[in-house]
Amino acid sequence: CDLIEFEEVVQRFPFVFCRGCVSTETETDFQSSPNQSAITKHPFLLFNITVNVSYIIRHTRLKSKAKIGYLAPDFTAKAVMPDGQFKDLKLSDYRGKYVVFFFYPLDFTFVCPTEIIAFSEAAEEFRKIGCEVIGASVDSHFSHFAWTNTPRKQGGLGTMKIPLVSDVRRTISTDYGVLKEDEGIAFRGLFIIDDKGILRQITINDLPVGRSVEETMRLVQAFQFTDKNGEVCPAGWKPGSDTIKPDPVSDLNSF
């Protein structure tokens, strides 16, 4: 890594380094550096520092681009649509609507179909509130197609009411911070994106546990309510429940 990167990493991750054993001088200046004796006596420290800096820089460069309050990372990718056709799906084409975008690990697995079918069956309810649902995995669109054309009694999905995106290059799952690098599959990430393309909510589950369609619906409705009314929703809020005005007096009255 270069000098600037090294200094940034030292500032951001001071716990990685041993006090008095790190030098950011040039090679010439290093000869007279007070740090020289420490590293000369303990050369393994320099090796550990190099390894740690390399690891941190590599992984901070690959960090998620998905940040709450910012535009969700856009993408264009092959997808199997509800009508069974292939299409280049572009996320930004959904502007003007809320989007529930969720990742699942792999086609033809066990927990995944329970989630995907549940979201598919709820697709019309989401559309009634101006929200679209999109699923994605690292499988090819051909695999998605085969899975949707396999009967549910035989481990397939059957007819779907939501598109399934193909992320065979792992670029989308990397941008959204859900790629499990050692296996090359996606964690169960779920992202709520508002009608302006802003990311409002992130949930990432480990592989064994599925997600709740009902809770996802509740969150979408809560964000839509706050968008429209400017009030905030307390824990467990559901449509029709009391909300809170963001001022000290109203806040006290809510307890």
UniProtKB/TrEMBL annotation:
<feature type="domain" description="Thioredoxin">
    <location>
        <begin position="66"/>
        <end position="225"/>
    </location>
</feature>
<comment type="similarity">
    <text>Belongs to the peroxiredoxin family. AhpC/Prx1 subfamily.</text>
</comment>
<dbReference type="Pfam" id="PF00578">
    <property type="entry name" value="AhpC-TSA"/>
</dbReference>
<dbReference type="InterPro" id="IPR036249">
    <property type="entry name" value="Thioredoxin-like_sf"/>
</dbReference>
<keyword id="KW-0049">Antioxidant</keyword>
<dbReference type="InterPro" id="IPR050217">
    <property type="entry name" value="Peroxiredoxin"/>
</dbReference>
<dbReference type="InterPro" id="IPR013766">
    <property type="entry name" value="Thioredoxin_domain"/>
</dbReference>
<dbReference type="GO" id="GO:0032991">
    <property type="term" value="C:protein-containing complex"/>
</dbReference>
<dbReference type="GO" id="GO:0042744">
    <property type="term" value="P:hydrogen peroxide catabolic process"/>
</dbReference>
<keyword id="KW-0676">Redox-active center</keyword>
<keyword id="KW-0575">Peroxidase</keyword>
<dbReference type="GO" id="GO:0045454">
    <property type="term" value="P:cell redox homeostasis"/>
</dbReference>
<dbReference type="InterPro" id="IPR019479">
    <property type="entry name" value="Peroxiredoxin_C"/>
</dbReference>
<keyword id="KW-0560">Oxidoreductase</keyword>
<dbReference type="Pfam" id="PF10417">
    <property type="entry name" value="1-cysPrx_C"/>
</dbReference>
<keyword id="KW-1015">Disulfide bond</keyword>
<dbReference type="GO" id="GO:0019430">
    <property type="term" value="P:removal of superoxide radicals"/>
</dbReference>
<protein>
    <recommendedName>
        <fullName>thioredoxin-dependent peroxiredoxin</fullName>
        <ecNumber>1.11.1.24</ecNumber>
    </recommendedName>
</protein>
<dbReference type="GO" id="GO:0008379">
    <property type="term" value="F:thioredoxin peroxidase activity"/>
</dbReference>
<dbReference type="GO" id="GO:0005829">
    <property type="term" value="C:cytosol"/>
</dbReference>
<dbReference type="GO" id="GO:0045321">
    <property type="term" value="P:leukocyte activation"/>
</dbReference>
<dbReference type="InterPro" id="IPR000866">
    <property type="entry name" value="AhpC/TSA"/>
</dbReference>
